[in-house]
Amino acid sequence: MAFYSESLDHSQRVNLSEQAYLTIENDIFAFGGKEKVKQGTFLNQVFKNYKDDALSSISIVMVKEKQSLNKYFKLHPDNNQNKAIQIWLEYYEEKIKQKQEYQKGTDIKFRINNENFKYLTEHGSECNEDKYYKDKSQKPRISLYLKALFEEYAQKPLYAREKIYYAERFEIIRNAIEAGHQLKIQVASSEMYYVKPFRIDLATYHYLTGVSSPVEKDGEPSYQSASFRLSNMLSVIPVRSRSGYLTEKEKENLNKEIQQKGAQFLTANITDVRIKLTESGVQKYNNQIHLRPACKEILPGNIYCFQCTEIQAEYYFFKFGKDAMVMEPESLATRFKSMYGKAWKIYESAQNTETIK
Prior knowledge:
Blueprint lengths: L10 E6 L1 H14 L7 H12 L7 H18 L5 H18 L7 E6 L2 H8 L20 H13 L3 H8 L1 H13 L1 E7 L4 E12 L1 E10 L9 E6 L3 E11 L4 H14 L8 E8 L1 H9 L7 E5 L3 E7 H8 L6 E5 L1 H27 L1
Antiparallel strand pairs: 1-2, 3-4, 3-7, 4-5, 5-6, 8-10, 8-11, 9-10
Helix pairs in contact: 1-6, 2-6, 3-4
């Protein structure tokens, strides 16, 4: 039984809490790739990919729970098992329903696509959420179900939300790894690569790691260690005609590189980096974990020594400002000086303009 009693309107107005609304807007920007995806497209994809696993899909959750209990009692028979199952299911159902309470906030209006609309409204659909999502007059409301699902989605950590949104992309990559064939990937810069996939690594965002070679018409491909952020891919196509087999030695080398560099910096080279920190800089280094390179040695004068990529050192230490001075390599020190100098000129120019006014 679906929401067929409601007027068949693809357009839905859903009220989201401020936290959920802001999270979804941020995800649209973060997961949108080169071009910002439309809000309706984003929400439709989240619903499609998450509905079978969301706690908000109460009817699905209850079916799974009942199946799990039946499986348990099949292995551990009990004379009172039917009664025990019924009591537990009633309690569990009520517990889930109590969680479906969210604050009001911002109204959003979007069009449900045909696939999701059929699931929600057609006779014979597997959707049974109309039983749980009703307004004060006891009329089933799709918008109430959508609100619960999107609110639940927004409460999940970033890596889990990314995995939901890119569920199909994850599946394509996993299938390629298991089947041992290559992938053809187009990235945000429109460049295309053949990739022998190794695994998906989590480093704030998800990255496909492996060895890759640019797609060229002439010449043999030359494969090098590489990583691709899933949200920066424009397309991922299985290429079953090309072997994606990685030797044990190649896997061992990739694993070592990922441990040394981090998945997001896999294409960069390791170099010796020395940073002189103030006392405040030392505190920042101890407290700020994200992208922090591992320290190999601390020399007198708070000189911290690293073996990492320049780009990792730049991403991590640039925000330290006056509390971190690059001593080595010279190329990194020059880049910091240039970027700080350009920033100073902007503020100096703005200050002079204000003075003239």
